[in-house]
Each structure stands twice: as structure tokens, then as C-alpha cells.
Amino acid sequence: MLEAREISWIKDHKAILHNIDFHLFPGECVGLIGPNGSGKSSLLKILAFLETPTSGSLYFQGQSVPRNVTLSIRRRIAIVFQEPLLLNTRVFENVAIGLKIRSLPKGEIRDRVDFWLEQFGVGHLSKQLARSLSGGEAQRVSLARAFALEPDVLFLDEPFSALDAPTKEGLRNDLGQVFKSTKTTTVLVSHDFKDISHLTNRALILLNGQVMAEGSPSELLKEPQKEEVERFLAHFSS
Ligand SMILES: Nc1ncnc2c1ncn2[C@@H]1O[C@H](COP(=O)(O)OP(=O)(O)OP(=O)(O)O)[C@@H](O)[C@H]1O
Ligand SMILES: [Mg+2]
């Protein structure tokens, strides 16, 4: 579905990512985990075509991705960031906007928006102004907006990190249910191993812009592969 080969990214004379190989098969959720500044968001932005790598190649659905990514490729992915980026309109409009841009029929837009708001437990907020939502509600709306696009690949960059613990746990469970039923192909960035072990089949551990380990969450914990990885994972083993 998506593959990156030997990706490096140098920005302002700083090496941010070094020689990264990555692949994503249809239906899997792959995690990117690492400490602050390890390059998780940078890699996610490159994989989601928001930044261009200095060297290396990207392949999307078997095709080499050109440097100037076409709109038709961009429209097949969706991204959710840590801070929900909502427009100052009603919740319904926020979720509908991407579908309007894609010229879907009005009836289908209504059905899809209603369905996805319900899936994330915020159907009752449809008419509320997005600005007046709580942080947890806003992030649920952002996720509904991304899923409503039915993207081929979904990118989630720390979607829970602005939420308090119980809110986070509720949303993580709901997202897990949605993954189970939709099998949406996803890249999930988190610095919390609990998110990774709940939601992903496989994860890559990034340290200093390099992939230091890769495997299923349980394999990573059992066999950390390198001393630096063991040190990083030790934070989560209590
Ligand atoms: N556009 C940019 N220009 C210059 N440096 C950048 C740019 N984007 C990221 N960096 C640098 O790259 C490094 C990795 O940043 P990145 O945001 O990818 O880390 P992260 O793992 O997502 O961290 P966090 O957990 O804090 O979100 C940091 O040192 C950051 O300052
Ligand atoms: Mg980040």
C-alpha cells in the first residue's frame, strides 16, 4: 500500500531522518514510537506527502510517488494531528467539508457524516459550533472527519496526547473498535507504548531519526533488540 526506501531528511543542515525503510500493508495499523524529537512527526509528514525527503523513494499503491504529489494521490489519504484543527462552523460542516470538496452527492454526505459522528459518539453534537467543544469532543470530531473521507491510508499523529487519562482511554477503546470493523490502513504516531500495544499490529521504534527496532508490540517488549531500545522501553514496563 505504502512503502518508503532509504528515506533521509536534512533540513537547515540538520539530519532529521536517516536511511529509513518503511512499509505498510493494506488493513494494518503500524505504530511509530520514540521520545520527543526522535523524528516521528517528520517521518509521518514525509509518508503523508506533506514534506519531501532529501533522498530516498516513496511508493504508493505500487507506483513511485512523484516529487510534486498529485491531488488525486493526496485525496486518498487523511491526517489527524495532536491538536484538533476544526473550522469555526458547526460540527456537521466540519466533517462534511472534505466530502463537499470531493463533490459527493448531498444525501451521501449527510449519511456519511451522521454515521461517522455516531461511530465516535458525538452524533448529538452535530449542530454545535466546533469552537465550543471540549478537547475530547473536538478530537472525536477530527477522527470522524478523517474516517468520513474513507481514506486509503490514515495518518494519526499523537491523536490522544492533548487529552486527560480517562478521556484518552475512552477514545482509544472506541478507535480500537473502529479499526476492528473497518480495517483502515493506518500509521499511528505515539510516545505512549500503551497506545501502540492497544492499537497496532507492528511498530517501529525511532531514536535520533533512525529506526532502531521493529516488531509486534509484544515482541518489542520481550526482545528489545538493542540496548538503547531497552532503555527507552523501560519507561513503560511498570
Ligand atoms: N521543518 C523543520 N525544520 C527544521 N527542523 C525540523 C523541522 N521539522 C522537525 N525538525 C526537527 O527534527 C527533529 C525531530 O522532530 P519531530 O517533530 O519529527 O519529532 P517527534 O518525534 O515528532 O517529537 P515529539 O514527540 O516532540 O512530537 C527535531 O529536532 C525538530 O526540531
Ligand atoms: Mg511529533
From TrEMBL:
<keyword id="KW-0813">Transport</keyword>
<dbReference type="InterPro" id="IPR027417">
    <property type="entry name" value="P-loop_NTPase"/>
</dbReference>
<dbReference type="Pfam" id="PF00005">
    <property type="entry name" value="ABC_tran"/>
</dbReference>
<dbReference type="GO" id="GO:0016887">
    <property type="term" value="F:ATP hydrolysis activity"/>
</dbReference>
<dbReference type="InterPro" id="IPR003593">
    <property type="entry name" value="AAA+_ATPase"/>
</dbReference>
<dbReference type="InterPro" id="IPR003439">
    <property type="entry name" value="ABC_transporter-like_ATP-bd"/>
</dbReference>
<dbReference type="InterPro" id="IPR050093">
    <property type="entry name" value="ABC_SmlMolc_Importer"/>
</dbReference>
<protein>
    <submittedName>
        <fullName>ATP-binding cassette domain-containing protein</fullName>
    </submittedName>
</protein>
<keyword id="KW-0067">ATP-binding</keyword>
<feature type="domain" description="ABC transporter">
    <location>
        <begin position="2"/>
        <end position="233"/>
    </location>
</feature>
<dbReference type="InterPro" id="IPR017871">
    <property type="entry name" value="ABC_transporter-like_CS"/>
</dbReference>
<dbReference type="GO" id="GO:0005524">
    <property type="term" value="F:ATP binding"/>
</dbReference>
<keyword id="KW-0547">Nucleotide-binding</keyword>
